[in-house]
């Protein structure tokens, strides 16, 4: 299991829409995340910055790779193009935060 934390930026003024869309998250997307090995997935927001945390089985690259290959994820990502200003670096990788310390 790998813990991952990554950052996203919401388009200024679109915070309420970002929240609304997550309030109505698609059950089929949740199912794909779970089947792919993503657990304890949590989003936090401070102004326009979203901090995401997830526990991935066996690791983040495998779990998110599985999700990324699904049709429902493609639709979800396309739906968010007007809400997210940034969620990957120029190479298409998640903008990760490095783990400094952990307490079980």
Keywords:
104 residues, alpha+beta, Alpha-Beta Plaits, 5-stranded antiparallel β-sheet, 4 helices
Terminal Cα span:
13 Å
| Share in helix | 25-40%
Whole-number tally of structural domains: 1
Beta-strand content estimate:
25-35%
Count all strands and give the number.
5
Query: In the CATH classification, which architecture applies?
Result: 2-Layer Sandwich
Write the topology of this structure.
Layout: E1 2-10, H1 15-23, H2 27-36, E2 38-46, E3 49-56, H3 60-68, H4 71-79, E4 84-86, E5 95-97
Antiparallel strand pairs: 1-3, 1-4, 1-5, 2-3
Could you describe the 3D structure shown?
The protein is built from four helices and five strands, in the order E-H-H-E-E-H-H-E-E. The protein has 104 residues and is α+β, with helices and mostly antiparallel strands. It has one domain: Alpha-Beta Plaits (2-Layer Sandwich). Strands 1, 2, 3, 4 and 5 form a five-stranded antiparallel beta sheet that branches. A hairpin with a 2-residue loop joins strand 2 (38-46) and strand 3. It is globular, with a radius of gyration of 14 Å. The model has no long low-confidence stretch (mean pLDDT 95).
């Amino acid at each position: 299991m790998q813990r991952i934390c990554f950052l996203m930026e919401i388009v200024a003024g679109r915070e309420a829409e970002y929240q609304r869309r997550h309030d109505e998250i698609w059950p089929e997307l949740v199912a794909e995340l779970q089947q792919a090995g993503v657990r304890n997935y949590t989003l936090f927001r401070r102004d326009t910055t979203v901090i995401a945390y997830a526990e991935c089985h066996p690791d983040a690259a495998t779990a998110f790779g599985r999700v990324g290959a699904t049709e429902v994820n493609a639709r979800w990502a396309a739906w968010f193009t007007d809400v997210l200003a940034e969620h990957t670096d120029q190479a298409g990788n998640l903008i990760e935060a490095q783990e400094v310390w952990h307490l079980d």
